[in-house]
Design goal:
- By secondary structure, the protein is an all-alpha fold.
- The chain folds into 2 domains: 81 residues; 82 residues, Methane Monooxygenase Hydroxylase, Chain G, domain 1.
């Protein structure tokens, strides 16, 4: 009888091991896609800052394909994929502001709502960088445009107050965005003197 029990146990463990091996392979694939998406999104933002918007758009397409591939894994590794979605959203929104002079909608970005909001908050920092560069290049008109977009993002999200468990990390990003906007406002104020 103990031989039958051991055979059943061995079969169970083997079956479990096979399932976990498949899960490990999926996890490894997800993490590779996350790293690649984050790198692509960072390149998109750098290229956009450097005025290479055509090249940035092509890189964004590559990042979009990776985001879609991540979606194939469903919710199983949603926590791990969140960073890639946020970084992609940030790159997509920032490039939309630079090229199309508008803030892309959540639906057009194509990520979940939380990732969209987190990416949106991070764009404020990219706009602050653009504003500082515009001021150092003696382009006050563009600096004011960047400031207006920063304010538009912040004002549209100001009323969002949710528990950390509902929208993890958002309040901190809001606070950072507020500080960046205050600094940008000060920079513009000194421009007028």
């Amino acid at each position: 009888m103990s031989g039958v029990i051991m055979d059943n146990l061995d079969k169970d463990v083997e079956k479990i091991s096979k399932g976990l091996s498949e899960k490990q392979d999926n996890f490894d694939s997800v993490m590779g896609l996350v790293r690649s998406t984050v790198r692509e999104a960072a390149q998109v933002i750098t290229m956009a800052h450097n005025g290479e918007t055509g090249a940035a758009s092509k890189r964004l397409e590559s990042a979009y394909k990776m985001v879609n591939e991540l979606g194939r894994y469903g919710d199983e590794f949603a926590y791990q994929a969140r960073q890639a979605y946020q970084e992609y959203a940030e790159a997509r929104i920032f490039l939309g502001i630079k090229v199309d002079h508008e803030i892309p909608s959540c639906a057009s970005v194509g990520v979940d709502q939380e990732s969209y909001l987190m990416g949106l908050m991070d764009v404020v920092g990219e706009l602050k960088r653009e504003l500082v560069e515009a001021l150092s290049s003696n382009n006050p008109k563009y600096a004011k445009y960047c400031h207006s977009m920063m304010l538009k993002i912040f004002d549209s999200t100001r009323s969002l107050r949710f528990a950390e468990a509902v929208l993890q990390g958002f309040r901190k990003k809001q606070d950072v965005a507020r500080i960046q906007i205050e600094s940008a406002s000060s920079d513009l104020l000194h421009l007028g003197k």
